[in-house]
TrEMBL record:
Entry GO CC: plasma membrane
Pfam families given in the database record: HATPase_c, HisKA
Domain named Histidine kinase: residues: 361-580
Catalytic activity: ATP + protein L-histidine = ADP + protein N-phospho-L-histidine
Species for this entry: Nocardioides ganghwensis
E.C. number(s) listed in UniProt: 2.7.13.3
Name of the molecule in the record: histidine kinase
Gene3D superfamilies: 1.10.287.130, 3.30.450.40, Histidine kinase-like ATPase, C-terminal domain
Keywords, in A-Z order: Kinase, Phosphoprotein, Transferase, Two-component regulatory system
């Protein structure tokens, strides 16, 4: 069986290792053992020998080396002894011996030859756990000065003498696991918070690289989006992309050093020339590559470089970089979503502009032939006609009048739908405007046999576009007259009103007309919508009047609502602020 040896010397710094070495020497004295070794659990899930006291050969071979977290042989072969596991040499099988030959060290000493004597292949191991039962490391005692295998009495004495040091080791390992990680993550998140919101992907990556580079104790930081071209890595672009994609699938990382490159749970490889050249170009000694992703999707890479004379990357730094990469994934997804939204909005604006331009062009093109029609119809009207010919002539006049009305409505709809039409807002006396519109349309009400009632408060002045507001009031009244039978009534009330804490004016136009079916109420503001009822179809119209009203109200930051009962009438309620939001207060 072959095991992969992960990157060595990734745990802690020199001062932490020195402390643990001193602890190991103290444990050796207290427990009467020549050799004491400590393995610490790294954040990548491997065990690393971080302190070895009493055996120079073992220190040279194993210190800083890491091994897979394989504890089966300890549990299966070891004899439980008050928190310790004694593994007698005679219980070792071939697989376990091969594993120990790869990752352990057998002292070059003879067996003691004593009854119950210690064998060089014996192991006495303690699993170091925190208060929650989580593994933090392993403690090995070897070569007892007595030359004897442990007994329950000996183990009890060991625990009494050195028990407090076991807890000290756990504490040191946990501080390394979380202390440096918390510091680095905090610094990174403060830097991330300084980046302006709403940036596109390219600008966001550039700003994040700059901010993180200034905040973290590293030489370089680059946030690279998947598929981007990195200067110096053009030839290896595809290969490196696949490497980082695999690392994301494994939730791993890559450490690039001048001689060897390490990736999580894989054998180290000779550092590719392209990466060596990249280190040289930026005067770096090593680099850390952490994949950025979300779900199954690999999004990019957080690449950090360290100067040639800087220490190696340690496990807590790698773990912290992984946490930071998760934060970057969220920002990257938000930036991509923002770009897509802006692109969609631009596309929608383009469609809207095209539609508006098409409508304006169509309306302009219709004006000339409509004018020609009116001219010739007027000339024909001056010539005496037979009754049958006069009826046809009158029908042509009505049809031409409808086309003219549609052209005017199309022009009005295109105008009020254009947010960049450059119209100026000014103070509008809405009270006077409503009276003027009512006076202008009074003949229409008289011809229809409809009563018009007005209740308009005085001095209602708001900021708006006079022509658009006039069109809104005119359409409200003319629409009410159109759908109200002779003998009916149209009322318009205009008064001050507040809405959502804002001061404004409420315009209510109510009629006693034919009403709108309930299933059509939410469609009435759609351009060109005409009711399906036969009663409504008998009234001529373009289906644009209510759409114009809704666009005018929206442009003035107001609201419009409609309620209706078939056969009883319809009420439109418009609320307009006294001033646009930017001018309020």
């Amino acid at each position: 069986m072959a095991w992969a040896r992960p990157r060595g010397q990734a745990w802690g710094n020199e001062s932490q290792r020195a402390v643990l070495h001193a602890v190991a020497e103290d444990i050796a004295k207290r427990t009467q053992h020549k050799v004491v070794a400590i393995e610490a659990l790294r954040s990548d899930g491997f065990l690393e020998f971080v302190a070895i006291a009493g055996d120079d050969a073992a220190r040279d071979k194993m210190l800083g080396q890491a091994s897979p977290l394989a504890l089966d042989h300890i549990h299966d072969l070891g004899q439980e002894m008050d928190g310790w596991r004694h593994i007698p040499s005679e219980r070792l099988d071939d697989v376990t011996r091969a594993f120990l030959d790869e990752y352990g060290h057998k002292p070059d000493v003879p067996a003691s030859g004593l009854p119950n004597g210690w064998d060089p292949d014996d192991q006495l191991v303690r699993l170091l756990e925190n208060k929650d039962g989580e593994l933090r490391g392993l403690l090995y005692l070897d070569e007892p000065l007595s030359g004897l295998r442990p007994t329950p009495e000996v183990v009890a004495a060991i625990n009494a003498e050195a028990g407090v040091l076991f807890e000290a080791i756990v504490s040191i390992v946990e501080r390394e696991l979380y202390g440096e990680q918390v510091r680095m993550v905090t610094q990174a998140r403060r830097a991330i918070d300084t980046v302006r919101p709403g940036l596109g992907v390219a600008d966001l990556m550039s700003e994040l690289s700059r901010a993180l580079g200034e905040a973290l104790d590293v030489a370089t930081v680059d946030v690279v989006v998947s598929g981007s071209v990195v200067p110096g890595l053009e030839d290896d672009r595809h290969r490196m992309g696949e490497v980082m994609r695999r690392q994301w699938e494994r939730r791993g990382h890559v450490v690039v050093e001048r001689e060897r490159t390490w990736s999580m749970q894989e054998e180290s490889v000779e550092t590719p020339p392209s990466l060596t050249r990249l280190l040289d170009a930026h005067d770096l000694g090593s680099g850390l590559l952490v994949p950025i992703g979300a779900g199954e999707e690999y999004l990019g890479t957080l690449a950090m470089g360290r100067a040639a004379d800087a220490p190696r990357w340690i496990a807590s730094e790698i773990n912290a970089a992984t946490v930071v990469a998760a934060d970057l994934a969220r920002l990257l997804l938000e930036a991509r979503l923002g770009e897509r939204e802006r692109a969609l909005n631009a596309e929608l604006r383009g469609v809207s502009d095209y539609r508006r331009d098409m409508v304006l062009t169509l309306a302009h093109e219709l004006r000339n032939p409509v004018s020609v029609l009116f001219t010739h119809l007027e000339l024909l009207g001056q010539v005496p006609q037979t009754d049958e010919a006069q009826e046809s002539l009158d029908a042509l006049v009505r049809a031409t009048r409808r086309i003219e009305d549609m052209v005017e409505d199309l022009m009005a709809l295109a105008s009020v739908s254009d947010p960049e039409r450059g119209t100026s807002m000014t103070e509008v006396d809405l009270s006077a405007l409503v009276h003027e519109c009512a006076e202008f349309l009074a003949p229409m009400a008289t011809l229809s046999g409809v009563e018009l009632r007005l209740a308009v408060a005085d001095d209602l002045v708001l900021t708006g576009e006079p022509a658009a507001l006039q069109r809104m009031v005119t359409n409200l009244l003319s629409n009410a007259f159109k759908y109200t039978e002779a003998g009916g009534r149209v009322s318009m009330d205009v008064a001050r009103a507040t809405a959502d804490g804002g001061d404004g004016v409420r315009v209510t136009c109510a009629d006693t007309g034919i009403g709108i079916p309930a299933h059509e109420v939410d469609k009435v503001f759609t351009p060109f919508f005409r009711s399906g009822s036969a009663e409504a179809r008998r009234r001529p119209g373009t289906g644009l009047g209510l759409a114009i009203i809704e666009r005018v109200v929206t442009a003035h930051h107001g609201t419009v609502r409609v309620t209706s009962d078939v056969g009883e009438g319809t009420t439109f309620t418009v609320w307009l602020p006294l001033a646009p939001p930017a001018e309020v207060g």
